[in-house]
Structures
1.
Amino acid sequence: MSTSGTESGTRSRTRRAILAAAAATLARDRKATLADIAEAAQVGRSTLHRYFADRNELMAAAIVDSFGAVEDSVRAAAIDQGPALEAMRRLIAAMVESGDRLAFLFGDPHVLEEFTDRFEPDMSVPTTLDLIKRGQEEGVFDPAASPEWIQRVIWALTYTGWEAAEKGELPRHGITATVIRTFESGVVVT
């Protein structure tokens, strides 16, 4: 029996754990060390260095991985299907689920400056702007607000929900409902 498949699976899981830990740790503390990230990933620092030679290499990989994780969440939310309001609720739930990744990517504008040339978005993933425009056409979302504004509101609400949970002001299981309720109170036409 060959162990190469097992090693490959173990390597893949370890790499994913390191990248997820990097995003989560750096979302909470931009100055976190590689030792902090290794501890969060439950690996030794030497193991982390076998996967990523230095902080820049880890940051670049974590950014690409985080964008991919967010795209996967949006894809799974199937926001191009069904009524726009239901699709928006699924999108918000997906974004809340990806809270660590979003906070890592967008919590500090300097994170992306140096690394944006290393990531190419998956153009097959439906966009939030397309969903918002569809919702405006359906008469569900405020037509007086630009799609870009509504998108920023969704991002801000999601980030605020993540941050409130981090501070203990909101239980994690309550973020999605609170963000949806707040969004619908301000943007949905009744």
2.
Amino acid sequence: MSISKSVHSLVSDVRKQGFAIWPGFLTGQRCDVIRNLAVQIANSEYANRYPKSTRVWDLYRHGEEFVELLGDQGLSSALDELLGVNHLLSDYSLNVVQPGQPVDGWHIDYPLNEMPARVSGSVLGLQCVLALDSFNSLNGATQLVPTSHLRMDRPSPDSDLDHAVFDAEPGTLLIMAAATWHRSGFNSSTASRSAVLMSFVERWVRPMSDPPESGPWGRTDALRILLGMQRPPETINGVLI
């Protein structure tokens, strides 16, 4: 499948059902490299250990492979269509769910979760979940309520809802609208479950993370704009200032 055709299908799925699944976003050696790096940093001084999971923030600081993920051509094309050009990175982290993690409450994501009233007509934000381990019902894979992104109400955290499960092999990418009702399931397995989380917002929405200082992660104009280190060119009536 060509990049243009696959992107069109992904964008259509997000708009219709609130999420899309991209099998084989990472394959082979590249997937192995990212996973090995994730294991290393999850056991490093940079890891933040919480009751339910281990997180490592600002992954672009932890290796060139993580910077390259942000510049993936297919992902960038899909984000341009859904969020508009010059969208911003809001959060970029590693999430390691430990065995025994309980079921999460149903929720929506930033920025809609912080808005006093829901709005319609714009995606505003996207959450991308890159599976580094297999995701399945046994280890508490992400659960989603199809078409819930079209609703104007908010989910009750403990509701009993019909849902889909993000069953996926390592290297699969889930692209989810911020307004889609979702939660993590119960990890009843004996192993941890790891994923790279990439959140993006439209260019006018303030990201959850502040722009970083100068570094190798800002080697191109596109990356600096994505990270909020550089503003895109301003225009008046379509003419560059």
3.
Amino acid sequence: MDLLDFTAEDLYFDEAANPEVEQLLNTAAEAYGTPAAEQALLRAFSKAPEGLTVLVALYRYYYYQLRYEDALSVADRAMNVVANRLGIEPDWRTIDENDLANAVQQSMTQFRFYLYALKGSAYLKLRMGDPQGALERLQAIARLDEADRIGVKALIDLANDALAEQAGTTAVG
């Protein structure tokens, strides 16, 4: 199955948004770097806790503020929202080819979003000094994405290198 095939499907940012939520997101963008930005994002989240655009905005805010724990929490929330929409198990550790087949029947773009959120959470784990946690998440994606369309192989190498460094050894090819 080609994970790049998402013809004629809406992307997460194509979802209809409540005008008040859109205004809050605009306010957050205009106030970026100030406490008002986070306040606007949290208000948007309270009004649309399952809105993927809101979750992406909140994730990015936390990421760029170097608040990786908060960003990880948002990434996990986004994966749970999408898993619920697709009717798949919310625990990324249990996702398999059957889940993939069922999920893409619902929406290939939503499943790709799920995988990218999982990849983002793995990257956060790397940034937080948890290469084992990152590797587990990346390997879950690699099991489903043999063609590496999501692009996790390079991150798997980084995670393995970090694990080897933690162990005081050098990575072997």
